[in-house]
Structures are given as structure tokens and as C-alpha cells.
Amino acid sequence: MATKSDAAADVTRPSLSFKRRLNAPPAKVFAAWTDPQKIIRWFGRADAKPGSFHADIDARIGGRFCVSFSTDDEYYEVGGVYHEVVPNERLVFSWAWHSTPERESLVTVSLKSDGEGTLLTLLHEQLFDQAARDGHERGWTGALEKLEKFVA
């Protein structure tokens, strides 16, 4: 049961959002998020080692995902549980790095058809602190740039 102080703490946790217009239909963008063979081609940091990506995705409500990759210096693994899955429209999932599972946050990806393309909105909420927000802002910026090229 959440107490008032728990609720207040959640309200003050930082979030960030992105909007992008992608030159691909929603079905192609949705598949890029939910197909393990596709997500490993765009997800993650720009300095990740080629061939180091691995993904397990069970894109259904209650299903889990896990994506991992390596840089020259570090191994990264992130995972979560899908709370909402609306094909070609919306994904809502928890998000936690393997190294800091207590810092779970929430990601919502919304897709809307826009002529021949897709308007993508990504909202990442309940981040642990401002430093986590800033790090995720850098990470999502790079990943979304790679996604844009991948689906084009």
C-alpha cells in the first residue's frame, strides 16, 4: 500500500519525452521494437560493439524483454515487463538495468500513422534521479536516431 510520502516521492521523480516523425508505417516501427532480430540492429549506445547485442522479447501483457550489449569498457543489460501491448499503436513496459534493478522506471511508446510515416512519442517516467534522467536522455537520443535510420 502506497503511503502519502511514497506518492509524493513518485511525483517528484524525473521524466523525459521525445517526439519523432519516422519515414515508415506504424507496423514497421512496432516490429522494430518487438522483434528481437530487429531491435538488436538499432537499440543501444552508438559505441556498442558490433555483434554484442542479444535480445529476448515476449511482447504481450505480462511478457518480459531483455536486451544486452557491450562496449569496450562495460556490459549492459536492461529488461522489464510489458504492461500494455496494442499492436502498431502502443507499448508500455517497465524498465530496469540489470546493475540497478531497484531503479525501475516506466516507458510508454506511442505510434500514430502520419501519411506514409509514423509519429512516435516516447515517454520515460519515474526515473531514479536527475542523473538517471540525463543519462537516459543521451541514450534514447542516440537510439532513436539509429531507429530512424533503421526503419527508413
How does this structure look, described?
It contains 4 helices and 7 strands. With 152 residues, it is α+β, with helices and mostly antiparallel strands. The protein has a single domain (13-151), classed as START domain (Alpha-D-Glucose-1,6-Bisphosphate, Chain A, domain 4). It has a 7-stranded antiparallel sheet with strand order 1-7-6-5-4-3-2. Strand 2 (54-57) and strand 3 (64-70) form a beta hairpin. It is globular. Mean pLDDT is 93; it is low at 1-9.
How do the strands and helices of this protein lay out in sequence?
Layout: H1 4-12, E1 16-22, H2 26-34, H3 36-39, E2 54-57, E3 64-70, E4 75-86, E5 90-97, E6 105-114, E7 117-125, H4 130-151
Antiparallel strand pairs: 1-7, 2-3, 3-4, 4-5, 5-6, 6-7
Brief synopsis:
By secondary structure, this protein is of the alpha+beta class.
Tell me which oligomeric state these chains represent. single chain
The major beta sheet can be summarized as: 7 strands, antiparallel
Strand residues, percent? 35-45%
- State the distance separating the first and last CA atoms: 46 Å
N-to-C SSE string, H for helix and E for strand: HEHHEEEEEEH
**pLDDT < 50 stretches:** 1-9
What is the CATH C-level name?
Alpha Beta
Shape: globular
Query: What is the overall pLDDT average?
Result: 93
Classified in CATH, the superfamily is: START domain
**How many structural domains?**
1
Strand tally is: 7
**Radius of gyration computed on alpha carbons:** 15 Å
Give the second-level CATH assignment, the architecture.
2-Layer Sandwich
CATH topology-level fold name: Alpha-D-Glucose-1,6-Bisphosphate, Chain A, domain 4
| Helix fraction bin | 25-40%
- Strand numbers in spatial order across the main sheet: 1-7-6-5-4-3-2
Pfam family, one: AHSA1
Family: Belongs to the AHA1 family.
